[in-house]
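Protein modeling request. Please complete all fields; requests missing the sequence field cannot be processed.
Requester role: graduate student
Desired output: 3D structure, token encoding
Chains: 1
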Amino acid sequence: MIYIIMGVSGCGKSALGAFLSEKDRLPWLLKLHEVIERERSSGSDALVACSALKRLYRQILLHGSKAFPSSGPDQDGLPASSPDVCFLFLYGDYNLIQQRMVVRRGHYMKADLLRSQFDVLEPPLDKENMLPLDIRRSITDMAMEVEKHIVSLKSSPRP
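Delivered output (159 residues):
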């Protein structure tokens, strides 16, 4: 089912959308897992953007429904990472990100919701196969760091 939230400006479309997406996160993460698996099985490279703030969310992206706590004892034995999936963790100071959000236009996420995101953030650990990227750097610098990472992976033998 596709829902279109409509109404005049200021009626709460963005707020309702943000609230519903919070409650509907698991199906969305499972859908992204399907996309990731499809790209992995085809041997394609891909970029996926997702906040993935909690470790459980990152595990769902990697392992799908097997990552759910209610899925049994295997859930604890799931690997924290996959050699062919790397989390690019853009990190930065709350004040810097809040300043950026205040000046941007046309985005559903309002600056006053940022605190709640920082409150629930579980920064990825090294074992989760992540590349930390400091947002104080330019987009070009961060992209070069990612490219270096890609080259280093392609030049090293895979198990």
